[in-house]
């Protein structure tokens, strides 16, 4: 696992402040950001996405700041085996580039992704409650 920073770019369920606070174990400051060179797809039979490299891709998300060792430990447990934490460079709204950590979907598991682009608004409307009740990562941090 990489640990280049105390900042994390999130692009799925963790964009929800309440979910992130529960998972990280404490509230964190956040900033909107975009990640170039990736696309976001729904994981098969799940409500959350994975991102994979794509030349023309652009993924909107949230950067959380000030993560502690305890936050990282909880997040690593929550994310589980589908993701590797790696450094990426994101673009903030003011144009500033920032190198932060991000949970990238493991390339060898890309067959577990659908061809459906994951959409945050749809997740909020149709998937969030189910995700909060069913995702096994919550049990890993309890």
Question: How many beta-strand elements?
Answer: 6
Strand order of the largest sheet: 1-3-2-4-5
Shape: globular
Whole-angstrom Rg: 14 Å
Order of helices and strands: EHEEHEEEHH
Question: What does this entry show, briefly?
Answer:
The protein is of the alpha+beta class and 142 residues long.
List keywords for this structure.
alpha+beta; Hypothetical upf0131 protein ytfp; five-stranded mixed barrel; 27% helix
Give an overview in words.
With 142 residues, the chain is α+β, with helices and mostly antiparallel strands. The protein has one domain (8-141): Gamma-glutamyl cyclotransferase-like (Hypothetical upf0131 protein ytfp, Roll). Helix content is 27%, strand content 42%. It contains 4 helices and 6 strands; from the N terminus they run βαββαβββαα. It has helices at residues 17-24, 69-79, 120-134, 137-141, and strands at residues 8-10, 29-43, 49-65, 83-92, 97-105, 113-117. A 5-stranded mixed β-barrel has the order 1-3-2-4-5. A hairpin with a 4-residue loop joins β4 (83-92) and β5 (97-105). It is globular, with a radius of gyration of 14 Å. It starts with 7 loop residues before the first strand and ends with a helix. The mean pLDDT is 93.
């Amino acid at each position: 696992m990489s640990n280049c920073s105390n900042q994390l770019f999130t692009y799925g369920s963790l964009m929800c402040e309440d979910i992130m606070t529960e998972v990280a174990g404490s509230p964190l400051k956040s900033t909107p950001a975009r990640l170039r060179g990736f696309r976001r797809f729904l994981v098969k039979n799940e409500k959350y996405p994975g991102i994979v490299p794509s030349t023309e891709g652009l993924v909107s998300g949230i950067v959380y700041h000030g993560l502690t060792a305890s936050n990282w430990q909880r997040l690593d447990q929550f994310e589980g085996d589908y993701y590797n934490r790696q450094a990426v460079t994101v673009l903030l709204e003011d144009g500033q580039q920032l190198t932060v950590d991000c949970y990238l979907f493991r390339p060898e598991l890309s067959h577990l992704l659908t061809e459906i682009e994951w959409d945050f608004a749809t997740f909020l409307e149709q998937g969030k409650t189910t995700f909060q009740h069913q995702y096994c990562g919550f049990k890993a941090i309890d």
